[in-house]
Write a structure and sequence with these properties.
Number of strands: 0
Largest sheet: none
Radius of gyration: 21 Å
Order of helices and strands: HHHHHHHHHHHH
Strand content: under 5%
Low-confidence stretches: 1-12
Number of helices: 12
Distance between the termini: 22 Å
Helix content: over 70%
Length: 323
């Protein structure tokens, strides 16, 4: 999408990789997006469950490999175990995606226009516009997605020590509000907003820059024929994988703290806090504890980065407004 971002650039050969907000049929964009992103989420959900359990479980489980944890879930809970929380996540994410994608595209379009006259390399122009758009859309979507994360993650870790049993999403909401009030649904909101927004900026900025550089290294310019569909998919997937890998290495410690903060209840006296969570992690595993679930998260983020951006770019190509 970064490439779409380049829409400010006149590269006619790359017109189908630079689809901006004003070229889209908004209704088709959101309907097709809801269908394809739900399918993508279903494919990757098991890696999220494994990652979440490794981050929340006692040190014995956290030191197991992701594959071992996956087998353990299958043995104890069967297929439903690796899809815990998916129904809530899939249905609940739809309004959030509309909010996130709309804010992403609108803010990116605005950034491209506002920086059009700024003297900077084209790749930097693309990267900056994507980075700012990624950060702003994340800030907006946090208001919706943090409570959804709290609910889904609590369903994923049912049965682990330190967690409260809940029969379903409504029961999760009821018990959280009863014990902590409405703010309990926003556990980790500050940490998420302050850390994931820069991480989102990093992801989208890296994607935009990487895709732009790959296209240029392949020799595509104003006087070239348009790339084939297979070329577009390959380049965009590669850029998405690079962005996902970079983001995982930097953000896993923060994600571990956030996940435990949102799901654990046995912190002793008082309301759970970031400092209590950090101290508990250090006591259990030392500094390596902050990289609990790194393998599954790396796999998830790399696959997510690749499949998400390929899916997203496909949605945009299918949603181009017909004149």
């Amino acid at each position: 999408m970064a490439a779409e971002t380049e829409a400010a650039a006149p590269a006619l050969a790359l017109a189908d990789t630079e689809i901006n907000w004003d070229r889209l049929d908004k209704t088709r964009f959101h309907i097709i997006g809801a269908i394809l992103f739900t399918a993508q989420s279903a494919l990757l959900h098991p890696t999220v469950v494994v990652k979440t359990r490794m981050q929340v479980a006692h040190s014995g489980v956290s030191q197991m490999s992701g594959l071992s944890v996956f087998r353990n879930i299958l043995r104890n809970d069967g297929i439903p175990g690796i899809f815990r929380g998916f129904g809530t996540s899939a249905v609940g994410s739809m309004p959030g995606r509309v909010l996130c994608l709309t804010s992403l595209e609108v803010s990116k379009d605005m950034m491209l226009k506002y920086t059009e006259g700024v003297d900077m390399p084209e790749a930097t122009h693309v990267g900056v516009a994507n980075a700012v758009a990624g950060m702003l859309s994340n800030l907006v979507s946090c208001v919706y997605f943090v409570p959804l994360d709290v609910i889904c993650q609590r369903l994923m870790v049912q049965g682990l020590p330190g967690t409260t049993y809940c029969s379903g999403p409504i029961d999760v909401v009821s018990k959280v509000i009863k014990s902590e009030g409405f703010r309990g649904l926003y556990r980790g909101f500050g940490l998420t907003a302050l850390t994931q927004s820069p991480a989102s900026a990093l992801w989208w900025g890296a994607y935009g820059t990487a895709q732009h550089m790959i296209w240029r290294s392949l020799g595509y310019g104003d006087d070239m024929e348009k790339p084939s569909q297979s070329e577009m998919i390959t380049v965009q997937a590669s850029a998405g994988m690079v962005a996902g890998a970079c983001s995982t290495v930097i953000t896993t410690p923060i994600d571990t703290v956030k996940t435990r903060l949102q799901t654990m209840d046995n912190f002793g006296v008082g309301r759970p806090s970031v400092m209590k969570t950090i101290k508990a992690l250090l006591k259990e595993d030392g500094w390596r504890g902050f990289y609990r679930g790194f393998g599954p998260r790396f796999l998830n983020m790399s696959l997510y980065g690749t499949t998400m951006i390929v899916t997203y770019e496909l949605i945009k190509r299918l949603s181009i407004r017909q004149n």
